[in-house]
Amino acid sequence: MVSLSALLRTLIVAALAAVLAFAPAQAQQVVTITTTTVTWTYADAGNDAGYIDEGAALLDDEALAEDADFAATRRYAPAATLATLGHAKAAYGPFSVIDAATVRMAGDVTSATPRQFAAMLAAWPGLRRLEMVDCPGSLDEEANLILARAIRRQGMETVVPAGGSIRSGAVELWLAGVTRRAAPDAEFGVHSWADEYGREANDYPPNDPVHAEYLGYYREMGMDAAKARAFYALTNSTPFDDVRYLTRNDMARFVALD
Predict the structure, then answer these.
(1) Chain segment 23-42, per-residue pLDDT in tens
(2) Rounded to an integer, what distance in angstroms lies between the CA atom of residue 238 and that of residue 245?
C-alpha cells in the first residue's frame, strides 16, 4: 500500500514536471508591439530645385513671409468658422451649400469628390463662390486636377476667408478660381509632391516629362512661364512630409488676387 506522504510527493513531482513542460510554450507566446509615431514638422527647406532660370527673382527667401511671428502662429481654421458649416442647406462630400451662390469646403479631395461636385452643381447651378475654410489637400491627385478644372469651367470665385487654411493640393484648387480672394490671415501650405514609389519632384531630373503636368496646370491657371517655374520650384523646395506656409501676399506674387 502506498503511504499518504509518498502519494503527496508523487503528486507534487508530477505538478512540477507539468509546470516545467508548459513554461517554454508560454514563453513563446510573448508578442512585442512596436508603435511608430510620425511627427509632421513645419520647417522651411532651402531653395535647391532645378526649375528656376529667369524666374529665380521670385524665389527670394528674404521677400517671402517667414518672420518669427507668422511662423509661431500656424493653425488650422478655427472651430467658430467650421461651425458655420452646420447651417448648410445641403452637403456633398466636403462641400456645404450656404445659399444659392455660395458653397463652403472643408476636408480632403478623394476620388469621389469630382462626382460630388458635379451632383452639387446639378442641384445648385447658380453656385459661383467657393469658400475654402479648412482644406488639407488631396488623397487622389488626378481627381484633384479634375475638380480644379471643373471649378474653372463653372467660373467660380475661390476664397480663403478669415482664419482659413488650405494646404497641399487644395492650393491648386484655389488657383483654379476665375477670381481669387484671401483674407489677410489666410494661410497656404505647400510642399513637394510624391509618387507611389515615394520619389519626390527633386528626385527626377529637371527635364523629366513628369514636371510638365504641373507646370502646364499653372500656366493654364494664368501664370506666365517664369512664374509657373518659380512657384513649382518653391513648392518642391519643401519635402513631401513637411509644410511651408505662405501668406496672402506671398501668393499675390504669383497670381492676381481681387
Answers:
(1) 333 333 333 222 222 222 32
(2) 10
> Residue ranges per domain, the chain?
53-251
Helical segments of the chain, H only: 4-27, 68-71, 79-83, 113-123, 141-153, 169-175, 212-220, 225-236, 248-251
* Phi and psi torsions of 76, nearest 5°: -95, 180
For the chain, helix, strand, coil in percent to 5 are 40, 15, 40
Q: What is the pTM of this model?
A: 0.73
The 3-class secondary structure across 204-219, one letter per residue, is: CCCCCHHHHHHHHHHH
- For the chain, the maximum distance between any two Cα atoms, rounded to a whole number of angstroms, is 107
Superfamily of domain covering 53-251? 2-enoyl-CoA Hydratase; Chain A, domain 1 (3.90.226.10)
Tens digit of each residue's pLDDT (9 = 90 or more) over 58-86: 555 555 655 444 444 445 655 545 555 66
Residue listed under C-alpha cell 519643401: 238
Q: In this predicted model, what pLDDT tens digit does every residue of 108-141 receive, in sequence order?
A: 999 999 999 999 999 999 999 999 999 999 999 9
Yes or no: say if 107 and 159 are a contact pair by the CB < 8 Å rule: no
